[in-house]
Amino acid sequence: MSGLLRKFSDAATGWLANELSEYTGKWVRDRVSLRTEEEAVRPTHHSRNDLLHVDNFSSRPAGGRRILRLFVNLNPVEPRVWITSEKFEALLARYLRRNRLPNWTPQEWTESLSSLQRLLHRDWSGRPAYDSFMLKLQSMLRADEEFQEKSPKRIWKFPPGSGWLLFADGLSHAVLRGQHAIEHSFFVPISALVKPERAPLNQLIAAGESIPLRMAG
Fold it and tell me: Three-state DSSP class for 82?
């Protein structure tokens, strides 16, 4: 099994090097995962992939880097069914309707939370503030019934043998149906991006800077 995953990682990385030459050698390989369960009946003790969300890994902080994910449907006869909805800009606007956003520098967003911030966020993991925010947004979206039911949706049916690629931290998505798929994630630094303004970290910084300052008294 480890040999199979390693072979896929090498093949996927080589393919991406040709298709996304701007990022070649700048990304960091993350994990390869094999999805053998049928998504439509997957046990609910796992993360709810059938609910719209954006990606962030609780065990592997992105630290502001983008999460590029390649999926391949290994099922020989059945499609893998996804839905996608709002992009990060609209999701951030939803968040700001209910919450405030700190006016932080890139360093403040990407360094580990301070002791006070860990207490306020109830997050003792030591992960960067950026990843703490992205996980909070992920949970908020999954729990938002109005967003899940009423947000605009596009259905995708990926046929057997097909592959698809996305920046999974910047587009809300969910998996409705499908069995047997393989996935490879990559971390892409902001310095390598063709359109760095679309990176969630840069959008957070811009949104924080746009909040008007209030003078005391």
Answer: strand
